[in-house]
Amino acid sequence: MAAFTDGFVICTGAQRRQTQAIADAIVERLRAAGERASHIEGYDRGEWILLDLSDVIVHVFTPETRSFYGLERLWGDTPRIAPTAGARPKAAGRAAAKPRPRREARRT
Q1: pLDDT digits over 34-62, tens only?
Q2: Has residue 89 been placed in a domain?
Q3: Is residue 12 part of a domain?
Q4: How far apart are CA 63 and CA 107, in angstroms?
Q5: Is 59 contained in some domain?
């Protein structure tokens, strides 16, 4: 892999607002687990958002930007791990954050 991290998460949002929403959701889950990203880059542009979680680097791309940079090609010899449906990340030394109850929409 790389000396600076244990792994990468590479994902795609359909467009800029969706990549920002994905990044926001990651930051919210970290906050709920008492953690935080040590560094975030590219949020304002939304084409390629990088979240440095120390052990893991998360890359959130628009489709065009992901295709252009092709990180999968750069790290082609690295084993890939498919996500597990419904899996919740665990913070180091802590149990995974419990999902927040959904609020019902108010009708006025």
Answers
A1: 999 999 999 999 999 999 998 889 999 99
A2: no
A3: yes
A4: 36
A5: yes
